[in-house]
Amino acid sequence: MTLRFSPKIAATALAGFWLATAPAQAQQCGGDFRQFLAGVKQEAIAKGLSANAADQTLAGAQVDRKVLSRDRAQGVFKMTFLDFSKRVISGYRMKNGAANMKKYASVFQRTESEYGVPAPVITAFWALETDFGAVQGDFNTVNALATLAHDCRRPELFRPQLIAAIEMVQHGDLDPRSTTGAWAGEIGMVQMLPEDIIKFGRDGDGDGHVKLKESAADAILTAGAFIQHLGWRRGEPWLQEVKVPQNLNWAESGLDKTKTGAQWAALGVQPRWGQISGNLPASLLLPQGRKGPAFLAYPNYSIYLEWNQSFVYTTTAAYFATRLAGAPVYTEGNPDLGLDDAQMKQLQSKLSSMGYDVGKIDGILGSGTRNAVQQVQQKLGMPADAWPTPELLRRL
């Protein structure tokens, strides 16, 4: 399940840019499609790949108009944390997550031993991305990558991915005719782009290949290697539900502010399960304000933001992993009514006119809008929990 144009693009975009052999090559796009592919072939050969692999990959490549349509009309993610998490963390996924952690216990043990990433973390991504491999996407991968590389919106990202697909064909790990995946080129049970598969792909079942579409063992081990690369800290927590006192200074909440666990505990923040990690820095997350669920986000939470930049998806994936690790269901609380799409855009427009940087006026409660809301709440003497309400909009 891709909630923006690519779950891992945030982690790969800059790498894709700098790995291009030269800026001119990285930006070649548009024009006659066959001439464009000929240029890709020459670049692949210059990188040491075989002409045969390039021909095998590119000979049948076509522009996929459905890919361009998806890219031009990316759905915006506007669900609240409670709505989204209740929708995607189903009994089915909890049951199958536990079953898969048991079925592949030895692979998960190996993954944690080598990369430090525990089974629930990988399993939550596996569930949310593809329902444990059941829904991996039906777009031809080479066509998707060739289409997006030829298009001139982000050639610096997708041209290197197309070159990487040629390398996968040369290794025997991608069939240009039959390999399918997400519309933005991600492949397999945990939806990864070709460059990342080449760098972090691991053969978990010992067959000499990395087959993320068919092999759960390959997917698990590869995900572990990739998450470690993103900066995962072995043996540390990532998210913990907490109870917060009503007299807390809400302006101290948010991802841009941290205290040690011990400092939060001294302010009256209490764990709903387990123990607060006293020496670790943590941020207090209030996805729907002070009256909704509350979490301490430890350093490993930042890895989720590398995987996907959506705050709601990220927090849901991290929370789902805690559930798979044994945490109870969160306490929903009784959050204040939020804003609908039109109201959110109205709020963003107002904040922007006041000089706050909320980014695009898109109706999405992103980090810029949250920060602006929190600052305005402070100025108005309202609880500064960064949750926009009709009352805030009225006051403005």
Brief synopsis:
This protein is mostly helical and about 400 residues long. The chain contains 19 helices and 7 strands.
Structural overview:
The longest helix is centred in the middle third of the chain and has 17 residues, at 155-171. The chain has helices spanning 9-18, 23-26, 33-46, 51-58, 65-72, 81-88, 91-103, 105-115, 119-130, 141-150, 155-171, 194-200, 216-229, 261-266, 301-307, 311-324, 341-353, 367-380, 390-395; strands at residues 139-140, 180-181, 239-243, 259-260, 270-271, 281-285, 295-297. The chain has three domains: 1-233, no CATH class; 239-324, no CATH class; 341-395, no CATH class. It has 19 helices and seven strands. It is mainly alpha-helical and 396 residues long. The model is unreliable at 1-7 and 9-27 (pLDDT under 50).
Write the layout of secondary structure elements.
Elements: H1 9-18, H2 23-26, H3 33-46, H4 51-58, H5 65-72, H6 81-88, H7 91-103, H8 105-115, H9 119-130, E1 139-140, H10 141-150, H11 155-171, E2 180-181, H12 194-200, H13 216-229, E3 239-243, E4 259-260, H14 261-266, E5 270-271, E6 281-285, E7 295-297, H15 301-307, H16 311-324, H17 341-353, H18 367-380, H19 390-395
Antiparallel strand pairs: 1-2, 3-5, 3-7, 4-6, 6-7
Number of domains: 3
Estimated radius of gyration: 22 Å
Catalogue the unreliable spans.
Answer: 1-7, 9-27
**What's the tally of helices?**
19
Structural class of the helices, strands and pairings?
Answer: mainly alpha
Distance between the termini: 37 Å
Strand order of the largest sheet: 4-6-7-3-5
Mean pLDDT: 91
The amount of beta strand, in percent, is 5-15%
Q: Helix coverage percent of residues?
A: 40-55%
SSE run: HHHHHHHHHEHHEHHEEHEEEHHHHH
| Major beta-sheet overview | 5 strands, antiparallel
Total number of β-strand segments? 7
What is the overall shape?
A: globular
